[in-house]
From TrEMBL:
The lineage of its organism: Eukaryota, Fungi, Dikarya, Ascomycota, Pezizomycotina. Residues 34-224 form the GH11 domain. This is Endo-1,4-beta-xylanase. GO terms for biological process: xylan catabolic process. It comes from the Eukaryota. It catalyses: Endohydrolysis of (1->4)-beta-D-xylosidic linkages in xylans. It is an enzyme of class 3 (hydrolase). Pfam families: Glyco_hydro_11 (PF00457).
């Protein structure tokens, strides 16, 4: 496990402007399972997703207009991902606001996938404990008008993806000062990743998600209410 600069103290380690949500936001999909699926696109759903695995109490619902709510209390082996977003993903200004009160491992993050190459990526906005499942490699940091982020990569071997069970790379941008609400200009992160040698492929979907998961004896709990535009 690498030593993180601003993460060294950790263990192991939304915004309804206007009257209507954009047409690219949808509340039609609420896909829920109790075991890992074989195809992550089915698991994640698309524009709105709610996926769970293992034990624990994970309750998330789409409220319409780009808003979703979650409450969770995990146990060993449990986890969930829920969020609202866009398909395809890509360069855009994602505005969000709301509340996020979390304990244990998990994130409030913009989460997405690309193909060719197959990349799973996170832009992490807030968290309690970051407890990566795989070792992270630091790739640098960057600062712009929205804040300072540290960059990491990791690799997952023979895990579920939007292309079935595959080995793929994960990209991470992690804020040095946590926030809940603001604008995420995704293109700025894509550019910073590219300069660090982190090359994305063709964009599939992306969501502003709440995620919680158990890691050893560390268990997640909390609540969130997030609106995305």
């Amino acid at each position: 496990m690498v030593t993180f600069s601003f993460l060294s103290a950790l263990v192991l380690a939304a915004l309804p402007y206007g009257l209507a949500a954009p047409s690219s936001l949808t509340s039609l999909i609420n896909h829920e399972t109790v075991a890992p699926p074989t195809h992550l696109e089915s698991r994640q759903g698309g524009y709105y997703s709610f996926w769970t695995e293992g034990g624990g109490s994970f309750k998330c619902s789409q409220q319409g207009g780009g808003k979703y709510t979650c409450s969770w209390s995990g146990q060993k082996g449990g986890g969930f991902v829920a969020g609202t977003g866009f398909k395809p993903g890509g360069s855009r200004a994602v505005k969000y606001s709301g509340t996020y009160d979390a304990k244990g491992p998990g994130y409030l993050a913009l989460y997405g996938w690309t193909r060719n190459p197959l990349i799973e990526y996170y832009i992490i906005e807030s968290y309690d404990i970051i407890a990566p499942g795989e070792p992270w490699t630091k790739k640098g940091n960057f600062t712009f008008e929205e804040g300072t982020y540290e960059l990491y990569t990791s690799q997952r071997v023979n895990k579920p993806s939007i292309e079935g069970t595959r080995t793929f790379t994960q990209f991470w941008s992690v804020r040095t000062e946590k926030r809940v609400g603001g604008t995420i200009t995704t293109g700025k992160h894509y550019d910073a990743w590219s300069k660090a040698g982190m090359k994305l492929g063709n964009h599939d979907y992306m969501i502003l998600c709440t995620e919680g998961f158990a890691n050893g004896t560390l268990l997640p709990s909390g609540s969130s209410t997030i609106t995305v535009s």
